[in-house]
Amino acid sequence: MTTPLRIVAVSGSLQQPSRTRALTVSLLTGLERALVAEKRDVQSHLVDLGEISESLARTFSRASAPRELEAHLRAIETADALIVASPVYRASYTGLFKHLFDLVHHETLFDVPVLLAATGGSERHALVIDHQLRPLLSFFQAHTLPVGVYGSEADFHDYRVSSQLLSARIALAIERAAPLVAQRPRRTDVQIAA
Ligand SMILES: Cc1cc2nc3c(=O)[nH]c(=O)nc-3n(C[C@H](O)[C@H](O)[C@H](O)COP(=O)(O)O)c2cc1C
What we know:
The protein has 194 residues and is of the alpha/beta class. It contains six helices and eight strands. The chain has helices spanning 19-37, 49-57, 67-77, 95-102, 128-139, 164-182, and strands at residues 5-11, 42-48, 81-87, 113-120, 143-144, 149-152, 156-157, 160-161. The two termini are 21 Å apart. Flavin mononucleotide binds at residues 13, 15, 18-20, 87-91, 119-122, 124-125, 153.
């Protein structure tokens, strides 16, 4: 058994059900499978803003974060790799998605591989990945992966990924991410909460 890699996925939608959550879970399960095929054990964790939006919105500083939110923040800060997704709201990520990352310590994501993803009403805002998400994760000096995944509403049916094009893009992103993530040693640079 290898020491498990911690893969943490963040879905930035405030809605339930959510296309962004469906895309995030597809990426997470696909990456888990690919890493297991590369002989790496995986521990995965999902941060769904639709589930924690109220406590997140009430938390203005890290010191006052309730226990459940603190556990999600620590999971992000100690991840060996991240999947980070948001719906497009007014040509950017959601406000609470940004608020979540405002609470993440700015020195905890150096060189951490991050797979970026987004969903929008149409294809017009697909560059939100490169113009909004990538700069935010670059601030953290994370290693944003070159292949991002964008889905528009037409790519989903009943809040599930339904288009072949989006499925193919998910597969490509995983195929490119898995070898890079698999060869990483488990992080020891961050204190792991009990
Ligand atoms: C407040 C709000 C603002 C939005 N702004 C945009 C936008 O600027 N561009 C776009 O393509 N879609 C926009 N949308 C559509 C959502 O991005 C799209 O429906 C997305 O798939 C919703 O994801 P969810 O199902 O995970 O909540 C907006 C939706 C809301 C509720």
